[in-house]
UniProtKB/TrEMBL annotation:
<protein>
    <recommendedName>
        <fullName>Chitinase domain-containing protein 1</fullName>
    </recommendedName>
</protein>
<dbReference type="GO" id="GO:0005576">
    <property type="term" value="C:extracellular region"/>
</dbReference>
<keyword id="KW-0964">Secreted</keyword>
<comment type="similarity">
    <text>Belongs to the glycosyl hydrolase 18 family.</text>
</comment>
<dbReference type="InterPro" id="IPR029070">
    <property type="entry name" value="Chitinase_insertion_sf"/>
</dbReference>
<dbReference type="Pfam" id="PF00704">
    <property type="entry name" value="Glyco_hydro_18"/>
</dbReference>
<dbReference type="GO" id="GO:0005764">
    <property type="term" value="C:lysosome"/>
</dbReference>
<keyword id="KW-0458">Lysosome</keyword>
<keyword id="KW-1133">Transmembrane helix</keyword>
<keyword id="KW-0812">Transmembrane</keyword>
<dbReference type="InterPro" id="IPR017853">
    <property type="entry name" value="GH"/>
</dbReference>
<keyword id="KW-0472">Membrane</keyword>
<feature type="compositionally biased region" description="Basic and acidic residues">
    <location>
        <begin position="8"/>
        <end position="22"/>
    </location>
</feature>
<feature type="transmembrane region" description="Helical">
    <location>
        <begin position="37"/>
        <end position="56"/>
    </location>
</feature>
<dbReference type="InterPro" id="IPR001223">
    <property type="entry name" value="Glyco_hydro18_cat"/>
</dbReference>
<feature type="region of interest" description="Disordered">
    <location>
        <begin position="1"/>
        <end position="27"/>
    </location>
</feature>
<dbReference type="InterPro" id="IPR011583">
    <property type="entry name" value="Chitinase_II/V-like_cat"/>
</dbReference>
Length: 503
């Protein structure tokens, strides 16, 4: 009995010890777990970003040195820009005109009616991957077709471009031909393809940029499901024809084919809108989709040129969430950035509704004449100013600035997409420095860091750049993009204190 009692006591003591042991392990484990969480937090949010920045500085030290003497050092990329700073600095671009650090495709349009673009293309050739002179129109002629525009082509300019850099030359072709006839008749479709491809061979272009979607929408072609399918098949057929044709400069590569697409007209995609299914259908036949994310506003409804939320909404419609997109497909999407602005008349006897597009030269003349206070509209991510003309009519002027362009470049980088510029003859010289500079802290080693880290890093970078950035709403694609009221944004001019502007 004594032995059994001892055994029972021994067993009870053992259980008690085990229980006490478990409690002690639990007590020891809790602070251990806390320390582990703290360690993970420190490594994830402090050590990795710090190491990334050090690696960046070591690996890309040359680039940092190069930008110190340009717009970065001058501290003019900011929201509180002064008109005199723009007048003083707009023509002082970096001496380094040959280096390009924007890793994604950059397409630049050049128009004959803004001849400055031809010079800018030569000077900054290496900052672009593709150059598209606006030269050609495919038109109906009797029962046939004619490709007009060769008289615009400048072979000497092309030769000089190719001697200075490797940008591909892809003239724009606008399909003006009557779409119903073109799409329904097989012989006309084949004729159109032959005319365009033959012209590229004879003129030794690297391919073309085709614009037709907006024309087809205007004709009502895209409202008809059958004609819409024919339209998509024609684009695919033309793209396949270019991909089966060798490039004149490199016979091991095919010619390139890019296609212009517009943004949606409403929150819900309509049948005439270019959507994600169209993107998937054409992705193997098209090398780039030039997305016209500008012209959001017009004289009848004045406002920003391209609000950031609208841009994000458009990209989300086409590509889905930025966290789960096909990177190869995204790279083919070229975010449209305007180098022009708008001067809207917003008061007067007629109640406003006048005005229109302005170039950099027009913008500088307005700054010189009116010496206005330039305001930052945080909602759209654009600058604007107000003035009164000789008839006392009030105007609102929206024109891109270094800050507004930089926001869009870095937004595009986070989406993993390219850029298309309309058009380089309308911009200011120092805009081109951004294609050297916009690499800042986002190069290589940082692109795989989670978005939360990027957000904190951008805040640090913003301080380093003396920028007063409001990036949280424009770069956080992990949240739902709230889309402004389509087709009109809440007018930015309503948020400005007019009494603070020049009369």
């Amino acid at each position: 009995m004594a032995r059994r009692r001892e055994r029972r006591l021994s067993a009870a003591e053992t259980l008690k010890r085990q229980k006490d042991g478990d409690d002690s392990v639990s007590q020891v484990g809790e602070p251990y777990s806390d320390r582990r969480l703290i360690s993970i937090f420190v490594i994830f949010f402090i050590v990795i970003p710090a190491v990334s920045i050090v690696v960046y500085k070591v690996k890309f030290a040359d680039q940092v040195i190069q930008t110190e003497s340009s717009i970065r050092h001058k501290g003019i990329i900011k929201t509180d820009i002064n008109f005199q700073e723009i007048l003083n600095e707009h023509s002082k671009n970096s001496e380094n005109s040959s280096t390009r650090h924007y890793d994604y495709p950059v397409l630049a349009y050049i128009t004959p009616w803004n001849s400055k673009g031809y010079d800018m293309a030569k000077i900054f050739n290496s900052k672009f991957t593709h150059l598209s002179p606006v030269w050609y129109d495919l038109k109906s002629q009797g029962s046939g077709l004619v490709l007009e525009g060769r008289h615009n082509a400048d072979k000497g300019w092309i030769q000089e471009l190719r001697s200075r850099g490797n940008a591909l030359i892809l003239p724009r072709v606008v399909l003006e031909a009557i779409p119903g006839e073109l799409l329904k008749k097989k012989k006309l479709r084949e004729k159109a393809i032959d005319l365009i491809v033959t012209e590229c061979k004879e003129m030794e272009y690297d391919g073309i940029v085709l614009e037709s979607w907006s024309r087809w929408a205007a004709y009502g072609i895209l409202h008809d499901p059958d004609l819409r399918k024919m339209a998509l098949k024609f684009i695919k057929q033309l793209g396949d024809a270019f991909h089966s044709t060798s490039s004149p400069r490199n016979h091991e590569q095919h010619m390139q084919f890019m296609y212009v697409v517009g943004p949606p007209h409403s929150e819900k995609l309509q049948i005439y809108d270019f959507g994600p299914e169209d993107l998937q259908f054409l992705k193997d036949s098209v090398d780039g989709f030039s997305l016209m994310t500008y012209d959001f506003s017009n004289p009848q409804n004045p406002g920003p040129n391209a609000p950031l939320k609208w841009i994000d909404f458009t990209l989300k419609l086409l590509l889905g969430s930025s966290n789960n997109i096909d990177s190869n497909l995204a790279r083919k999407v070229l975010l449209g950035i305007n180098f022009y602005g708008n001067d809207f008349a917003i008061s007067g006897d007629s109640g406003g509704g006048g005005g229109g597009a302005i170039t950099g030269r027009d913008y500088l003349a307005l700054l010189q004449k009116h010496k206005p206070t330039i305001n930052w509209d945080k909602e759209s991510g654009e600058h604007l100013f107000m003035y009164r003309d000789n008839k006392k009519m009030k105007h609102a002027v929206f024109y891109p600035t270094l800050m507004s362009i930089l926001l869009r470049l870095e937004n595009a980088r986070l989406w993993g997409i390219g850029i298309s510029i309309w058009e380089i003859g309308q911009g200011l010289d120092y805009f081109f420095d951004l294609f050297l500079f916009s690499v800042f802290w986002m190069k290589g080693v940082l692109v795989n860091i989670q978005r939360l880290q990027v957000k904190y890093l951008l805040c640090s970078v913003a301080t380093h750049l003396t920028c007063n950035l409001g990036l949280s709403h424009s770069l956080r694609h992990d949240q739902e993009a709230s889309h402004p009221n389509i087709p009109r944004v809440k007018q930015a001019v309503a948020r400005i204190d007019y009494t603070a502007t020049s009369a």
